[in-house]
Amino acid sequence: MNKPAVLDDIDRSLISALVADGRATYATLAPAVGLSQAAVRARVQRLLDERLVIVTGRVDPASLGLGVFAFAFLEVDSEVDKTAARIAEIDEAVFAAISSGRFDLLVELRCADDRRLTETLDRVRGIAGVRRLQSATVLHYEKQDWTGIGNRHAVRRTNPAVRTGSELDEIDRLLLRELIADGRATYAALAPTVGLSQAAVRERVIDLIGGNVIRIEAHPVPEAMGIGGFSGIAVKAVGPVGPAAEAVAELAESTVVARTLGRFDVLAELWYDDHDHLAEVLDRLRAVDGIGSVDTMPYLRIAKEQFGPGSLS
Known about the structure:
By secondary structure, the chain is an alpha+beta fold. It has three domains: 9-51, Winged helix-like DNA-binding domain superfamily/Winged helix DNA-binding domain (Arc Repressor Mutant, subunit A), CATH 1.10.10; 63-156 and 220-302, 2-Layer Sandwich (Alpha-Beta Plaits), CATH 3.30.70.920; 163-211, Winged helix-like DNA-binding domain superfamily/Winged helix DNA-binding domain (Arc Repressor Mutant, subunit A). The chain has twelve helices and ten strands. Strands 2-4-3-10-7-9-8-5 form an eight-stranded antiparallel barrel, surrounded by four helices. A two-stranded antiparallel ribbon has the order 1-6. The longest helix is centred in the first third of the chain and has 13 residues, at 37-49.
């Protein structure tokens, strides 16, 4: 269950700095908030431990051969919290939000391959309380960017093209899996995982980030950024999907935008200040040529947000 966030101005400043640079060093963060590196380290660790901010690596999985990402949209006919708790026990379910609207649960799945995805979907269908499940597989991410949260006039940050999977070796893929799980994993922690020295790992990670293979992103709780909340939206396009996906990605309020195959054509996450703001954003979307239906899933509670590497094994 989510607990009310207890944050002071220093916490909020640190979270904002992590949103800007998920791997910002303690040496960089300390003078920005006027504390020692040891104090900043303790603060950041508390924020991470209490899940007030999640720092993860964001990649385009299909381009890198890192597995299959998908979303499941669930209708539940019993206590949704109990159903969500059972889903949270599944390693492949890395994110689960209890939502209002047409669907009761929005679940993000990350699986090693199509076979594992099929097995995982069947496992979810078999959970008591799940009345109906629809799914959509991620084809491509148009946008993954939390830096504009709270700024309705934020300019979209360009998503550079990722390198192709053929340019990566197995060590690169191992590092990517670890960084997806923990975007702030230290070089000392990564080194034994891949059997290289800390210096060699540092060089590899810097190259992966600098080469736009992975982007380290911080996802904060709404209270940390002074906003009302987050909502998933699912779009059915009329005609080509590209213009619809681009229109959603251009919104200052969108943080994640994915082109998907299945029940919906575009799946996105939006931030909003209040319900009036969310309604206004949705009206803007509905006015866009090429966007047909828009299903809204405001998050009531986050049941799980844990991007462990085990889901891709």
